[in-house]
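Researcher: I'd like a structural prediction for the single chain below. Treat it as a standalone chain; there are no partners to consider.
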Amino acid sequence: MVCKRPPSVPAPACEPLAPERPGVPGSRWQRLAPARSTSPSGRGQAPLAPHPPAWRGAARALAAGLGLLAAGPLLAAAPLRAGGTTYPAATLFQEIQRETLNCGRENTASSCERARRLADPLLDHPRLSSSCKDALWAVRQRAVVAPANSLARRDPIDSASRDVGAFCRQPNQPAAPAAAPSTPVPVAPNFGGFGR
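Model: Treating it as a single chain, here is the predicted structure.
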């Protein structure tokens, strides 16, 4: 095998990558030989570095994917570490509801600003659900003073206030305790007939 290279290129830069195939125009060995071009001034430029093989990009992507896969359990444990923060008190949500309703009813800057100020820091709380945060965001956006206090203004504000009460409960707290009857009521048997 003969390595086709320009005379100015040293011999180690012209190592064969694959066996030469007869009858194929061009030489695969010339790939490693640095290209030399001449500028208009006649001076030669520095040789260009060869391109890295195509598999290197795939290997890097595979390594990044494996790194994310290995970090998965650590990322999943992040909400568990947030367990140190306590769930906000129910009285805070009741106060947000009360101030939001006051904003809808009174249309004053002080009540609307207070409702927005109470809802704002809870948007970044790690223990609140996304539906609760959506309700708090609606309070934050809708509790603004308007020139006219119409039903079209009050209704969305009142709806946002109701959503805070519905969605911002503590998760392990039951919605409403079911009252059990104190004495059982006797029921007469019904043998397929209609009610009397």
